[in-house]
Description:
alpha+beta; eight-stranded mixed beta sheet
Amino acid sequence: MKQARVVSVNTALPRDIEGVEDRTAIDRRAVDGPVTVGPDGIEGDQVGDTEDHGGTYQALYAFAREDLDLWAERLGQPLRAGVFGENLTTEGLDVNEALVGERWRIGTVLLEVVSVRIPCSTFAQWLASGGVDATRWVKRFTAEGRPGPYLRVLEPGVLGVGDAITCEHRPDHGVTVSTMFAALTTDRTLLPRLADLDRIDPEAREAARTYLAQQG
Length: 216
């Protein structure tokens, strides 16, 4: 089994992309050398839509190289690191089986799994602009149930390509990234499992509590 590690660190600044409706920073590209990570993410990285993206609970986004390879096979073309808009492309770690509240040490940075990526029209438009067959992309990506996690920064520091990913804390509640994603997208009956989690995106917890209230 491969050691869990970072195989690419990717950043971008917002820009206009032909075929994409909104100004976006989804076109993240690999950077060389170590990067500084603060409370809001990687220094020099930004988001385009600050209303729906970024902030404390979406400071960094991780996606597995293995999942990129799976999509590359299905789409019939190679997919470079960063093309899904991820800041960290990982290897040797099933990021979707990570537990909400799990903490990763990468370099001197301590990160916590707190949310999941929900696909949007910008994601589909971006892939289509690069020649990818993005027909029904949001539905296809959602059905796969492997969205990758958003990470909160608990301890700022420095990380880089090749750094090991070490799990320093793993809760015992059993709610994985995939479980959280399903609860928020395809299976609302799972929402109660999110309601009492302490280490979670507050918007997701509120969605869970609203669902419970509606159920009486």
